[in-house]
Write a structure and sequence with these properties.
The protein has 94 residues and is an all-alpha fold. Helix content is 61%, strand content 0%. It is globular and about 40 Å long. The termini are far apart.
């Protein structure tokens, strides 16, 4: 078993599954289920599936949502292998 496969298989409760380049659909399903299992998972899931806020003046509720958005981004980034993360990290937008 390769190290990458070992990391992917070990995708546990402490981190989301690693992206398997050969099966994006399966990975994305696992990632969304992982996000939903976290505290405030519904809000994190909502951010992953929808666009983030862009208003300059945010209400208290929106500030709270932004914190959950940051958590959602972290969950996604933790599931990427280093080579893909490097490519994604250099991009300004999706």
């Amino acid at each position: 078993m390769s190290t990458q496969q070992g990391i992917y298989d070990a995708g546990s409760k402490n981190r989301p599954p690693m992206l398997n380049k050969d099966n994006y659909v399966l990975w994305s399903s696992h990632l969304l289920r992982y996000a939903k299992s976290k505290p405030n998972g519904k809000l994190i899931y909502n951010f992953i599936m929808n666009d983030p806020y862009t208003n300059d003046e945010l209400t208290e509720k929106e500030v709270k949502q932004m914190k959950f958005n940051d958590q959602a981004i972290q969950i996604i980034l933790m599931g990427l292998p280093e080579d893909i993360y490097a490519a994604v990290d250099s991009c300004g937008t999706a």
